[in-house]
Amino acid sequence: MQAYRRPGIAAAQGKWIAFLDGDDLWSPGHLESLQRPTDKTAAIAVISNLRLESRTGHPLIDPAVLPQGVDDYFTFALSSGDYPASSSSIMVRKDELFAAGLFAEGIASGEDIDMWCRLACRGPFFYNARLSATYTGACSSSNRAAAPIFAQRLPGLIGDGRVPPALVKSAKRYANFLMLEYARASYSRRIYGSACSPA
Predict the structure, then answer these.
(1) Which of 26, 31, 104, 165 is the most exposed place for a label (fewest CB within 10 A)?
(2) d(C-alpha 65, C-alpha 61), whole Å
(3) How far apart are alpha carbons 57 and 48 in whole angstroms?
(4) Is residue 163 in some structural domain?
């Protein structure tokens, strides 16, 4: 996936980049609703809610969660579905994608989670609460446990001092969560033959 994303991002001429995975869908007005907060906030990324077909169309984030600025993405993630940003439900400033190093190469899964974590260290996000994207698969790199190589990257950012001091505590909690998710998924694979937990 990274092999296609990198040249696509480089070729894009707009200030903002949105992604749509091949098996996902956008509702009418999705891009407009992501664009709207960018004129009024300092957000470097905007997230919509995501409909999960594998959960009979239920939203990823509780509909009771209101639109809000997200200064601490790690705390927001742990309280709002664990993986609130999907590659098909986020729009990011192009310059910030480059400044954060783009999507990492050599990661079999979890490369998008890694990208959102690095972006979260660079500036605030905004959550618009609109249910305007649909994930049609059973499990994706956004909602399955990260591979070990990725699970070590957030602690590495913390150790290198690249996580702002105000976010270190919540980043550590999120890093611990990712390791627990990897352990859970490994157990599921052994018992059920799948990286995703049974429905």
Answers:
(1) 165
(2) 7
(3) 15
(4) no
Domain count, the chain: 1
pTM confidence score = 0.85
| pLDDT, position 2 | 57
Residues 99-111: pLDDT tens digits?
A: 999 988 777 677 8
On whether the CB atoms of residues 154 and 118 are closer than 8 A, the answer is no
Residue 89's CATH number: 3.90.550.10
Is 46 inside any structural domain? yes
Q: How far apart are CA 186 and CA 189, in angstroms?
A: 5
| Structural domain of 128 | 2-142
pLDDT tens digit sequence for 70-101: 999 999 999 997 899 999 999 999 999 999 99
Spatial CA neighbour of 125 closest among 41, 63, 49: 41
